[in-house]
Every structure is written in structure tokens, then in C-alpha cells.
Design a protein that fits this description.
Structural class: mainly beta
Oligomer: single chain
Number of strands: 6
Number of domains: 1
Strand order of the largest sheet: 1-2-3-4-5-6
Length: 169
């Protein structure tokens, strides 16, 4: 009976779900600001980070991601600030985003290096889709856009980050 109820709920909720494409970042340990605004100021110095990733080279519509981020501390290390700009392209989909992040860094325990950071980030995201790159089965499908369609949306994020001399989470 539980399986039947679960199947029913999943079937009903499938109409309510919207999918999204997140850029594929790897090696988060080198710059966690891409996924967690509380990471701002973690290295306790001015930190500039950029990357470019091009997967499946030579294939039309292959994923391309790039980003630039800068973060630093302020207020005697109690505040972390960061800016991030990113671009992601996957086939007909594209996304450009910009974020400003703020992290309040609390000293925890007797160790000077133990910190609990609470972070928030606000930004804007421009999503786009190029209908001319799509190859629909049914020509005349009204859901397939003609040409490039874009929308701009506000975005917000929040995070928690704990670090010591030996480990972080």
C-alpha cells in the first residue's frame, strides 16, 4: 500500500516539477563561493579565482562554463565579502549570472581559527534559449520559441560554513 501511495504522489507531483540546469563545477575545495555564500572570506586574504571549462570539444552545443570570483575579509576578519560573475551554455540554453555575497564569520571556541560563517548572496540571472538551435519532432510546436528568448530574474542564496585549522564543512 505504501508503494502505491508513493507512486501516486510521484505521478501527481510530476506535473508540478520544473527542471533546471546547473553549471558543472568541479574541485569545490579550491573555491566554494560558487555553491556557498558563507565561504566568502574563508582564506582570510584577497582571493581571485577564475575558470573556463569546455566539455566535449568539437561537438555542436557542447557545455561551456566560465566564471570569475573575488572574495576578501573586512572588519578584522568578522565579515567576508565576495563578487561572482558566471556564464554557462549548454546546447540551446544559456545562463549569465552575477552575485554579491556577504558572510558574517563568528569565532567559535578557544581557537582563533575556528569560525562559523553565515552567508547570504543576492544576484541576478539571465536565462535564455535559442529556438533556432532546436530540432523539434513536430514542426509548428508552439512551445518551441522562435529565435533567442531571454528572461532576467532575481536570485538569492544562503549558506553555512564551519572551518578550523584541520577541516571544514
Amino acid at each position: 500500500m505504501k508503494k502505491a501511495i508513493l507512486l501516486f504522489v510521484l505521478t501527481i507531483s510530476a506535473r508540478l516539477v520544473n527542471a533546471q540546469q546547473d553549471a558543472q563545477y568541479s574541485q569545490y575545495m579550491f573555491n566554494g563561493i560558487y555553491i556557498n555564500p558563507a565561504y566568502a572570506g574563508y582564506k582570510e586574504q584577497l582571493n581571485l579565482h577564475s575558470f573556463y571549462r569546455n566539455q566535449w570539444t568539437g561537438i555542436k552545443g557542447s557545455p561551456k562554463s566560465m566564471s570569475l570570483a573575488v572574495d576578501a575579509i573586512a572588519n578584522d576578519g568578522n565579515v567576508g565579502l565576495a563578487l561572482q560573475i558566471a556564464s554557462d551554455k549548454l546546447g540551446a540554453q544559456s545562463s549569465i549570472s552575477a552575485y554579491a555575497n556577504y558572510a558574517y564569520r563568528l569565532r567559535v571556541g578557544s581557537s582563533e581559527s575556528s569560525r562559523l560563517a553565515l552567508g547570504v548572496g543576492v544576484g541576478v540571472v539571465q536565462n535564455g534559449i535559442d529556438g533556432d538551435m532546436l530540432d523539434p519532432i513536430d514542426m509548428g510546436d508552439v512551445r518551441i520559441p522562435i529565435g533567442m528568448q531571454r528572461n532576467i530574474l532575481p536570485d538569492a542564496r544562503a549558506g553555512v560554513f564551519y572551518s578550523t585549522d584541520r577541516w571544514y564543512a
